[in-house]
Every structure is written in structure tokens, then in C-alpha cells.
Write a structure and sequence with these properties.
By secondary structure, the protein is an alpha+beta fold. The chain is about 40% helix and about 20% strand. The protein is elongated.
Length: about 120
């Protein structure tokens, strides 16, 4: 996968998740490589279990867009203890624009009216 640090932003707390600020990061990657990467993680976990007791963190939820949210749902839960929460791609774009509009990040969003005025 590829992390896009130029898109990262810190959201002030409190939020629906807690009182601390949240860091919003964006990651992209080739779907066709996802399954082999998750299977490799599972193999490594199996090897570690042989030598040490299992430590599991609590289930985390990650909102994802695209077909991978459905296709890899069980693999993410098994390998990473992560629940993928599917979100429609176009809805992601609309909600992202609404979020930027509501948060008033300077220079991140502009609108054009019917007279082409910004």
C-alpha cells in the first residue's frame, strides 16, 4: 500500500470516537496484492502462536470504499482483527466535501455559484 502523507490532517477533539484529536490518513493500494499480503500476515501469526501466547487487541473498525471492503472482509477480521465497514464510493466523495465545508479548512474547498463566481 501507499500512504499519502500530503493528505493527512489532524481533526480536533472531541469526536464521536473520543476526546483526543484524531489523525486522518489516506492509504491506497492495488487490490490484487491485498489477499497475498493478508495471507502472509496470517502465516506469520501462526508461527508466532507456536512460540508465544496470543495477544489480541480489541476489534477495530475501518471505513473503506470499493469492492475490497466486501471481498476481504473475513481476511481482515482474521488476520488483523479489523472489521471493514463498507461505504459507497460516491457517498465517500459527497461526505468528504460536506466535511471539508463544515470544518472550514482554509483553502481546501471552494464553491462556484451560477454566475461562475468563486
Amino acid at each position: 500500500g501507499r500512504l499519502h502523507p500530503h493528505l493527512a490532517m489532524t481533526l480536533p477533539g472531541p469526536s464521536a470516537i473520543g476526546d483526543e484529536p484524531m489523525k486522518l490518513q489516506f492509504v491506497s493500494g492495488a487490490t490484487e496484492r491485498m489477499e497475498s499480503a493478508l495471507l502472509r500476515i496470517l502465516d506469520e501469526q501462526r508461527e508466532r502462536k507456536k512460540n508465544a501466547p496470543e495477544e489480541r487487541h480489541s476489534l477495530r473498525k475501518v471505513v473503506t470504499a470499493g469492492g475490497g471492503a466486501h471481498k476481504f472482509k473475513e481476511l481482515f477480521r482474521t488476520a488483523l482483527n479489523v472489521e471493514l465497514v463498507p461505504f459507497k464510493e460516491l457517498q465517500s466523495v459527497v461526505d468528504g466535501l460536506l466535511f471539508l465545508s463544515q470544518q472550514s479548512f482554509q483553502g481546501e474547498l471552494f464553491t462556484v455559484d451560477q454566475c461562475n463566481k468563486q
